[in-house]
Design a protein that fits this description.
By secondary structure, the chain is mainly α. Helix content is 66%, strand content 7%. Helix 6 packs antiparallel against helix 7.
Length: 215
């Protein structure tokens, strides 16, 4: 069993064998920020943090870069690094999702048509290009930078995985049909149908991923 020690505030610090040093630094700092041990507005020192966490400055620096992408710290060129402020308007945007504009709905319809055409012609490259447009447009129409950022991290990795295995365990026409169903429902302003179509698409993607284990 991995050893853990408990801080005065009841926060558990992972043992030395829990992930990479950067992972340890990231999780330790993230917890300190979230539990307000490092309050908003705190100016951070790599040296001080390295001493506190007993981790070298390079993993601390890499962890701070990850935290900056998460929005928990702000890197100010030539001024240092500061814990980000808690912003109510920003917090509300975490929960905010807006509707597609008429131009975006027209683009969804175009993507749906293009995907079905690409599948009929067995044009996997064109399908992948349209899939990228589909993913980007889904993120953009949400008007939520947090959702867009998360989807951006997953987009290329997911598409590459699918392309590597689709000829073995996938069905290009079916994949196109499921994507097109989501795009068409958004284009036609039918949220309930879009939600159901999205669930079917996610189920297909999960089933596809599991089938690759048997290849």
């Amino acid at each position: 069993m991995k050893s853990k020690k408990t801080s005065k505030r009841g926060v558990q610090t992972a043992g030395a064998d829990d992930g990479t040093l950067t992972d340890r630094a990231y999780h330790g700092l993230e917890e300190m920020i979230v539990t307000l041990q490092l309050p908003p507005g705190t100016v951070l020192s790599e040296h001080t943090l390295a001493t506190k966490l007993k981790i070298g400055r390079t993993p601390i620096r890499e962890a701070l870069q990850r935290l900056a992408r998460d929005g928990l710290v702000v890197i100010m060129p030539r001024r240092g690094i500061m814990v980000s402020e808690i912003n109510l308007r920003l917090q509300l945007r975490l929960l905010e999702v807006r509707r597609a504009t008429p131009d975006e709905r027209a683009e969804f319809a175009e993507i749906a048509s293009g995907m079905l055409k690409a599948a009929a012609q067995a044009d996997d490259i064109e399908f992948m290009r349209l899939d990228q447009r589909f993913n980007i447009l889904i993120a953009e129409t949400a008007r939520n930078e947090f959702a867009r950022r998360s989807m951006g991290l997953m987009n290329a990795l997911s598409r590459r995985f699918w392309y590597q295995h689709y000829q073995e365990v996938a069905d290009l026409p079916l994949a196109a049909k499921l994507h097109a169903a989501v795009a068409d429902a958004v284009a036609e302003k039918k949220p309930k149908i879009a939600a159901a179509a999205s669930d079917k698409l996610i189920d297909y993607i999960e089933d596809f991923a599991r089938k690759t284990l048997d290849t």
